[in-house]
Amino acid sequence: MSIVTSYIDSIRHRDRVFDFMVPQADSRLDIRNGCMLYVEDVSVSFDGFKAINNLNLYIDEGELRCIIGPNGAGKTTMMDIITGKTKPDTGSAWFGQKINLLEMSEPEIAQAGIGRKFQKPTVFEEQSVFDNLELAMAGPRGVLPTLFSKLNGEQKDHIEEVLVQIGLQEHGKARSGALSHGQKQWLEIGMLLMQNPRLLLVDEPVAGMTHQEMDRTAELLTSLAGKHSVIVVEHDMDFVRSIANKVTVLHQGSVLAEGTMDQIQSDARVKEVYLGE
């Protein structure tokens, strides 16, 4: 029997449940005052270029916030700072009142409850939709547990719930590579949900989608608000209007304007630097 065949056979015949695989909530997260994320007086420069300039951003518990702005406004760098990929030169970033994001690595921040979805979906295309969600499940899943453990009822229920939530309940056994572009985006959001995040960062979720897929994505993201805080970076203004209660406009690394979509579209500064009016 080859190593690959043995590996696959071991996965198919798992019969043990490891209790430590069950996701545990992060007890350090303190949001008693209602604020999930604090980014205060943050600046960072790259080779003399100030990508973020005295940025202040506050995201409430359960809020869905849209971030817009022209290319080079600092949107990606902002997400890099929140998720630990980039360390700022000055300022602070807190997850709740007690978790200092600037003292943590990227894996530690993910484990604390912050998930990030990049623009291009990255799923395991040769695996089924169900298997992708299982592989993404929160908890310390080392080589031996992943190979030889069996999902318990609670874990199976969690996967089934996420399948319904992302609208792929009829595709659980399907090979992920056979999904449409929009379905792959939903699957990747589902993979983040398997990590039980409290804050989700979603980068340009509807790029390349059909209108029908965009409508479904709007429904999905708005359904996440409340249980999760969600930050959506997006360029499609019609999509932003369909989901946003509050919009933040970035320009040259700082907040240019903030408010409802109607307020943003009537703001003279926004019209000049972003909407091109």
Task: Let me know the largest β-sheet.
Answer: 6 strands, mixed
Q: Mean pLDDT score, rounded?
A: 87
Number of strands: 10
Strand-and-helix sequence, N→C?
HEEEHEEHEHHHHEHEHEEHH
What sort of overall outline do the alpha carbons produce when their principal axes are compared?
globular
CATH class value: Alpha Beta
Annotation field: number of helices = 11
By CATH, the superfamily comes out as P-loop containing nucleotide triphosphate hydrolases
* Contiguous runs where pLDDT drops below 50 for at least 5 residues: 1-25
Please bin the fraction of helical residues: 25-40%
Describe the structure.
With 277 residues, this protein is α/β, with parallel strands linked by helices. Helices cover 35% and strands 23% of the residues. It has one domain: 3-Layer(aba) Sandwich (Rossmann fold). The chain has helices spanning 3-12, 75-82, 106-112, 129-135, 143-148, 153-165, 181-193, 211-224, 237-243, 261-265, 268-275; strands spanning 35-46, 49-60, 64-68, 90-95, 99-100, 114-117, 199-203, 229-233, 246-251, 254-259. The chain is globular, with a radius of gyration of 20 Å.
